[in-house]
Automatic annotation (TrEMBL):
Keyword Signal part of the UniProt annotation: yes
Protein's UniProt name: T-kininogen 2-like
Any one Gene Ontology cellular component term annotated for this protein: blood microparticle
Cellular compartments annotated: Secreted, Extracellular space
Signal peptide: 1-18
A matching Pfam family: Cystatin
């Protein structure tokens, strides 16, 4: 009689569990924060199951959770993607992975796991319904560490490049146009120039400024002017960002035909003036 009652209870429990999981299938999964405590509990049970089924070498510990969703109805079903790394605990030890440290990256295998875990706290059900972990050996010849290029990052340009000279020329002309000094300023040296791809190109220059013998009324270009001597000049430095829009092609209709126009010129749009420091004739230094 007792055996019959136990079997009947087990059958009802299994039927209830199957019905709960079936009900969840009708609910759409929703994203969940990767630091959610319940999600991390599901990761914990997946790793305990994975480590428990291993027979040799080291246990694996969590590296990071990269993705998680949950379906909630008569319990919760979690779908998780996470990375793991070999720990310093052997599988024969009585420790759990949470008590272990990662082995050094130079000797540790890594892996990627996906798992589905059903949790029903009221029914005291916690089941890893599916998991799959792919291990990548540390000495795998196919793994070649490589730094990916930063496509949107600023890169240094040669100070004597044509683009640096063109942008410097534009910047000095704009300074001379905007300043209240009666004389034209020129440049002695470019300290730094970088290029960055944005909506067009963003050039950042840091260059010296020095007063010349030419007055603005002379209409001379600054490259043709003689720089004043140190004891009779206003000098300084300037750091400037110049946004350059490059037009490489356009289209328009003419006489019913589409004509392609090509323009390799540059439209300079002054965006940000970062720093400006000009010292008077009494001298001084610019940091």
């Amino acid at each position: 009689m007792k055996l019959f009652v136990v079997l009947l209870f087990s059958s009802q429990l299994l039927h209830s569990n199957a019905r709960s999981v079936s009900d969840i299938d009708s609910v759409d999964p929703i994203p969940i924060d990767c630091d959610d405590p319940e999600l991390l509990k599901a990761v914990d049970f997946t790793l305990r199951k994975f480590n428990g089924e291993r027979r040799t070498t080291h246990q694996y510990a969590l590296d990071r959770v990269s993705f998680g969703t949950v379906q909630r109805k008569r319990g919760s079903r979690y779908f998780i993607k996470f990375d793991i790394q070999e720990s310093n605990c052997l599988v024969e030890s009585e420790k759990t992975w949470t008590e272990c440290d990662h082995r050094p990256p130079t000797v540790a295998n890594i892996g990627h796991c996906e798992s589905s875990v059903y949790i029903h706290r009221a029914g005291r059900i916690l089941e890893v319904t599916m998991y799959n972990c792919t291990i990548i050996p540390v000495n795998d010849p196919w793994i070649v560490p490589k730094i990916a290029p930063c496509l949107g990052c600023a890169i240094s340009l040669p100070h004597n490049s044509s683009r640096a000279k063109e942008t410097l020329d534009y910047s000095i002309k704009k300074f001379n146009s905007d300043s209240n000094y009666p004389n034209i300023f020129g440049s002695e040296v470019i300290f730094k120039v970088t290029s960055q791809v944005v909506a067009g190109y963003l050039y950042t220059l840091k260059f010296s400024l020095r007063e010349t013998e030419c007055t603005k009324s002379s209409n001379d270009v600054w490259q043709d002017c003689i720089l004043k001597p140190d004891n009779a000049t206003t000098r300084g430095y300037k750091e400037k960002k110049v946004h350059v829009m490059t037009y490489v092609g356009a289209q328009r209709k003419k006489s019913g035909k589409r004509k392609v126009l090509r323009n390799n010129g540059y439209s300079y749009i002054d965006k940000i003036e970062m720093k400006m420091n000009v010292t008077g004739r009494e001298g001084g230094s610019c940091n």
